[in-house]
Design goal:
The complex is a heterotrimer of chains A (400), B (295) and C (266). With 400 residues, chain A is of the alpha/beta class. Chain B is built from 13 helices and two strands, in the order ααββααααααααααα. Classes of the chains: A alpha/beta (400), B mainly alpha (295), C mainly alpha (266). β1 of chain A pairs parallel with β1 of chain C, so a sheet runs across the interface.
Chain lengths: 400, 295, 266
């Protein structure tokens, strides 16, 4: 077959390309329907639990859905699977931002959401209302965790309370004495000895930690709520973070990556969760709650509006709220359980005291994660506060 | 029955033989349709997305309004310029290092080693390709960490591990893409006839001169082909940066964070325009050298 | 060109050094698969077969390998077909837009993976509203595997020339018969080389895969990514890696033998 020069196919080919492309682009420009709930309209939560579907897909913080694959002794999923026949598949996320993105894919039935995620899920139409009458274990839960500002909107409840905790400060006792203040990660003089080994949480929500520090150390900025920052206050927080940036070795969003870094000694000080210290399990790696207080979280199990297995989803939410399961899960993670009954079942009898379970005041002090919005959360009306997209932009620019 | 089928096949054959554009059309339709429908349209849609905006609270894309805000943002905010130059620098450095390492080993494999060894050497170079990219990156994380292999080897000489950072990224990327660079250069060197080099030395040129004036010009497209790989693969990489990069960000990370955690696909698409533009310029520039045939 | 013995020795030495540097991290991986310490510090604390045992029993790892094999196999088949068609079209014909088509074939592999990944993700989920399944991964992988087959076949076609095929036509063979009995046997080894490279590319691909695989599809790289930092699983990851390296030597060796000379290997 000799190569031959032949008639121009150009115009014909171009025409085909144009036709196909315009078809697809037309589809792309078409209206995108917002995700509708599997239960139909937004108002109607399930009225009764139907037959279990045989599987349930859960999106949660690490160490919330343990089935023994990480540590054979840590398993509260198998009992659930045996009891209900709902096989559990789970996906772990590192930050609330990741979770929102994953939730939108519609592949999960139940989502464990912290306070900064729950309202965003509801606003985006990703979460369905939850009928708490269908739960057996709801009554026993602490009252101050029910129908709160982060898990209900206009009297409509959206989830099952799980627990709450604070972001702690982890440090390597071989390298430094027990710190009493967050200045070991925010003050240049204090960080100098650990240059390149400081770590921080890799999410824009960490700006609130900087704001909390400024709240206590720079009262002239008049910060009353670390999630309610006007432009000037946000700039100050970013300046503080830029100072910190010079001493940072790694930011972490995967708690196991942080665990590894502390174990090898590549990180020696920084914010963390209790569960990280538990996983590291070395005598010289300790955690502490500094004097300024801390940011924290309160978690709720929510029902995805795109859930394909709502009945198994309800079954999971009920199960994980039960004192037995809740005690196991919250003790493993290192947070306060959701009920007195759960407290009675923890292995370490001091667990609830250490984590301030049932302590409504404590939850106020720890500034749990909230999504910053333009309307100032502290009630100021004379200024406009910065919202989360501004925080995200500022955070990316700060990292450089 | 069979005879009829055969007759039909023959007539199809003769028709096709007469009209070459028909043959060409049949050959091209399937692959071209695939590439256009799947790849070109997807790319076009992505670029279109760069012109949309995202609602800040719900995170849903507002498809109604077209705006150049994202692109303006990317072009004016100093952050993107800094990261783009940083990424370009890292990619260029990785490419230079890889080519520098690949040249001697490829030359040895193609021209100096006895033929029996050539196959073994080639297998030796190809085998690491099958070790997972992730495992290699993680192995470097372990190597460069405190108490890792680098420190263990370097302490007697007083050399400290660079730790996690841009240096680590450059080392790891250069390591991972090395086989991709060696292979085209090796293939290119094989195509340089020995007789050419012999003729050159017969005419009085020393080895260095032969290399510079005879071998290198012929080899150039192959070197560029290898460079395309290491450059393009480093340009968009975010996983290695996450594993050994410490607190640094490269273009790939910005795109990844924006399309994922920051939930701003339009901005991610706008940022993605940077590496696309860079690669298209690069490819257009090297098209003339014939490097694209050596991939 | 006549190289002095010293230069030859120098080159040989450099080659050995480079090969040592290439294999050092891999040897580290092998050691760490026996390391009792899960964080892989050096030197290893102690040696154990625990991880090998756990890997052997790991259902997750096995499933991941099988999924990867399936995806890679299907992608390779598609890439072989499409790549060969394209190579024949571009090598045997001249037409308007030929160099653009050439560029188009290379684009999926020349543009950074993350661009291809988010473009395809956006196309599948955002526009076509498809669920992400095994097939979406196969579609994505096929697209960037086409180029490896294309290049190998094109190089072989260039060397083959058209003479044998013309002779076959002169002798009265139809197009398909010519392809079947004359072209294909000569192309076989190029197809094998290209196919093997396509398989390797698809098998180890992570970036595009994370964007096109739904939550139900776990290829080996995704499994590794999920388990890399888990203290209990990271050493298992090392074991799996070592096994894959060892297993891969066989097909590479076979491909090298069958391809005769090594031209066109990328």
């Amino acid at each position: 077959m000799r190569s031959s020069v032949m008639k121009r196919r150009g115009p014909r080919a171009a025409g085909v390309v144009l036709a196909v492309s315009s078809l697809f682009l037309a589809a792309a420009c078409g209206d995108d329907e917002p995700s509708t709930g599997s239960n139909g309209d937004g108002d109607g939560a399930l009225t009764e639990i139907g037959e279990f579907e045989g599987q349930v897909s859960i999106l949660a913080w690490p160490a919330y859905v343990e089935d023994g694959s990480n540590d054979p002794k840590v398993d509260w999923v198998s009992a659930f699977e045996d009891e209900t026949g709902c096989q559990v598949t789970s996906k772990v996320y590192g930050t609330s931002d990741e979770a929102l993105n994953l939730a939108k894919s519609g592949e999960y039935d139940v989502i464990a959401a912290s306070g900064d995620l729950s309202l965003r899920l509801i606003a985006a139409g990703e979460a369905d209302p939850v009928n708490t009458d269908l739960f057996e274990n709801y009554d026993g839960v602490y009252d101050f965790l029910k129908d709160t500002e982060w898990n209900s909107v206009d009297g409509v409840n959206y989830g099952a309370p799980h627990g709450y905790g604070a972001n702690l400060l982890m440090y390597n006792a071989d390298v430094m004495d027990e710190p009493t203040s967050w200045d070991v990660v925010f003050d240049a003089d204090k960080m100098a000895a650990n240059k390149g080994k400081v770590t921080a949480y890799d999410s824009p929500i960490y700006i609130a930690d900087a704001a909390l520090y400024l709240m206590k150390h720079n009262p002239e900025l008049n910060i009353t709520n670390p999630y309610s920052l006007d432009e000037e206050q946000l700039d100050a927080a970013i300046e503080l973070l830029k100072t910190q940036r010079e001493y940072i070795g790694e930011y972490w969003s995967d708690f196991l990556k942080q665990a590894q870094a502390f174990t090898t000694g590549d990180s020696v000080v920084g914010t963390t969760w209790q569960v990280t210290a538990n996983v590291i399990n070395k005598k010289n790696i300790k955690v502490t709650l500094p004097e300024e207080g801390a940011t924290g979280w309160n978690d709720t199990w929510m029902l995805s509006s795109q859930a394909e297995n709502p009945n198994c989803a309800y079954a999971w939410m009920d199960y994980i709220m039960s004192p037995e399961a809740n005690a196991l899960a919250t003790e493993y993670f290192g947070e306060a359980p959701n009920s007195d009954a759960a407290c009675a079942l923890t292995v370490n009898k001091d667990h609830c005291e250490i984590f301030h379970a049932g302590d409504e005041e404590f939850i106020q002090q720890i500034w749990p994660w909230r999504t910053p919005i333009k309307e100032c959360l502290d009630g100021r009306t004379d200024v406009e506060c910065t919202d989360y997209s501004q925080w995200t932009q500022a955070w990316t620019e700060m990292k450089g | 029955m069979v005879a009829a089928a055969r007759r039909a096949a023959r007539s199809v054959s003769s028709v096709l033989s007469r009209f070459s554009w028909l043959r060409l059309g049949l050959l091209l339709t399937a692959p071209l349709a695939w590439l256009i429908a799947i790849y070109v349209v997807a790319l076009a849609a992505l670029l279109l997305t760069a012109l949309w905006q995202v609602d800040s609270f719900t995170g849903n894309i507002d498809r109604g309004a077209l705006t150049f805000d994202n692109i303006k943002n990317v072009l004016t905010t100093p952050l993107y310029r800094t990261v783009a130059f940083r990424t370009l620098g890292v990619a260029a450095l990785v490419t230079v290092i890889d080519v520098a390492i690949a040249l001697p080993i490829a030359f040895f494999m193609a021209k100096v080693a006895p033929p029996r060894w050539r196959r073994i050497l080639l297998i030796a170079v190809l085998t690491p390709l099958w070790a997972s990219y992730l495992v290699k990156a993680f192995a470097w994380r372990a190597t460069l960490s405190q108490g890792g292999l680098f420190e263990w080897l370097g302490t007697p000489f007083g050399i400290e591990s660079p730790g996690y950072g841009l240096t680590a990224v450059i080392i790891t990327q250069a390591y991972i893409w090395l086989p991709f660079v060696i292979l085209p250069i090796f293939a290119g060197l094989e195509r340089v006839p020995d007789s050419l080099m012999e003729a050159s030395s017969d005419l009085g040129a020393g080895p260095m001169r032969t290399l510079r004036h005879v071998v290198l010009p012929v080899l150039f497209p192959a070197i560029i082909a290898g460079a395309i790989f290491s450059f393009s693969l480093t340009l968009g990489d975010y996983i290695t940066v996450n594993i050994v990069g410490g607190a640094n960000q490269m273009l790939g990370n910005l795109v990844y964070v924006n399309q994922g955690a920051a939930n701003n696909l339009p901005l991610a698409a706008a940022i993605a325009l940077i590496p696309i533009a860079i690669m298209i310029v690069f490819l257009a520039a090297v098209r003339r050298t014939g490097a694209l045939d050596n991939l | 060109m006549i190289l002095s013995a010293n230069v030859k020795r120098l080159l040989a030495g450099l080659t050995v050094l480079i090969l040592v540097l290439i294999y050092l991290p891999l040897i580290l991986v092998v050691f760490n698969s026996f390391n009792t310490n899960q964080t892989m510090t050096w030197p290893p604390d102690g040696l154990t077969f625990d991880w090998w045992e756990r890997a052997w029993n790991s259902q997750g790892a096995r499933d991941a390998v099988m999924t990867s094999v399936r995806v890679a196999a299907m992608s390779t088949v598609v890439a072989l077909v499409l790549g060969t068609l394209l190579a024949m079209a571009l090598q045997r014909f001249d037409f308007f837009g030929k160099s653009s088509v050439n560029l188009l074939v290379i684009l999926p592999i020349a543009l950074p993976g993350i661009v291809t990944g988010i473009a395809l993700h956006n196309a599948f989920k955002g526009i076509l509203n498809l669920d992400l399944t095994l097939m979406t991964v196969v579609i994505a992988h096929s697209t960037f595997c086409i180029v490896t087959v294309f290049n190998n076949v094109q190089a072989r076609l260039r060397r083959m020339g058209g003479n044998l095929e013309e002779a076959s036509a002169d002798l009265g063979a139809g197009l398909w018969t010519t392809f079947r009995l004359v072209s294909f046997p000569q192309l076989r080894s190029a197809l094998l080389a290209g196919g093997l490279l396509a398989f390797a590319l698809s098998f180890d691909e992570i970036i595009v895969t994370t964007f096109t695989a739904g939550s139900g599809v776990t290829t080996l790289p995704i499994w590794i990514l999920n388990n890399m930092f888990r203290p209990a699983q990271a050493p298992v990851v090392n074991v799996v890696a070592v096994v894959m390296i060892l297993l891969s030597i066989i097909p590479i060796w076979i491909a090298q033998r069958l391809s005769g000379d090594t031209e066109g290997a990328r």
